[in-house]
Specification:
This protein is mostly beta strands. The protein has one helix and 19 strands. β16 and β17 form a beta hairpin. The longest helix is centred in the N-terminal third of the chain and has 4 residues.
Length: about 280
């Protein structure tokens, strides 16, 4: 799967022609003899590419210049030290591409690499456009690009979620003295629903946790709010769903954030599972 990003040539931003004026203040836009202005295409300083947990995914980033040349022009790109995305999640085809003679642009390819772990929502790789041979950067040129990842399965297959899972995140497990970190997940009881048998905290006598899933995107849109989440000495608490839950059916990942609803309401807790 290859998604071409920023293929529309948008190197000339609002005001660039004014900044490119000669001394007579007349704008000059000559693709052969004018000022060579370079930058990442698109006119934005950030973009997002798809991270498919099940397979490699390729996305193209374009570097362009506003004039043509009769010879290849070397490009220098670097990964900024402020990048937060772990290199295990991606590879870059080259940091030293060349814009071919007679062309305005060249693409580099970012390949996302699947695995058991997932990138955090805020993680990004920051690319710096250090130089383009024979070209200059203007104030409006995009020379730093923040590339984030959107984690998406190619499709949602709720039936694939049935099976045995490890509990990989359970915020209040230690508080409740929880020691059982495996769960069985079964389909139903209704359409687009799955049941996490024994729910969140077995030691607390929790009920089964039923998740209702949006089949279009895998987001968790409902839970059984009459189900007991925990039985504490000062009263039972019930399942309440907080935004952000999802399932990734292509790799068997279930992520849900709940709120204790009852005597200890207002304590968000995560409950994430990965299929064994």
């Amino acid at each position: 799967m290859k998604t071409h990003l920023y293929k529309i040539f948008v190197l000339l931003f609002t005001g660039v022609l004014i900044l490119s004026c000669e001394e007579n203040e007349r704008p000059i836009f000559d693709v052969e003899n004018g000022r060579a202005i370079a930058g990442f295409n698109g006119g934005r300083e950030d973009t997002r590419v798809t991270f498919n947990p099940a397979e490699n995914t390729e996305s193209s980033i374009t570097i362009g210049v506003s004039t043509l040349s009769t010879s290849d022009r070397s490009v220098q790109i670097s990964v900024d030290e402020e990048s937060t995305l772990d290199p295990s999640f991606y590879s870059i085809s080259t940091l030293n591409p060349s814009i071919p003679a007679g062309s305005f642009t060249v693409d580099i390819v970012i390949t996302t690499i699947p695995g058991v772990d997932l990138p955090a929502a805020a993680d990004a790789v920051i690319l710096n456009l250090d130089s383009v041979e024979g070209a200059e950067f203007l104030e409006n040129s995009i020379t730093t690009l923040n590339v984030g990842l959107d984690v998406q399965c190619p499709s949602v297959d709720i039936s694939a979620l049935a099976g045995n899972y490890d509990v990989v995140s359970s915020t209040f497990a230690a508080f409740f003295g929880e020691t059982d970190f495996t769960r069985e997940v079964v389909l139903g009881p209704g359409d687009n629903q799955i049941t996490i048998v024994d729910g969140t905290y077995i030691n607390e006598g929790a009920d089964d946790l039923i998740l209702t899933i949006d089949p279009s995107d895998g987001s968790v849109i409902g839970v059984n709010e009459d189900g007991i989440d925990s039985q504490v000495s000062f009263g039972p608490n019930f399942y309440r769903l907080l935004p952000g839950g999802r399932v990734l059916t292509c790799v068997g990942i279930i992520e849900v954030t709940l709120d204790f609803s009852g005597s200890i309401a207002g304590n968000p807790h995560v409950f994430n599972l990965v299929r064994q």
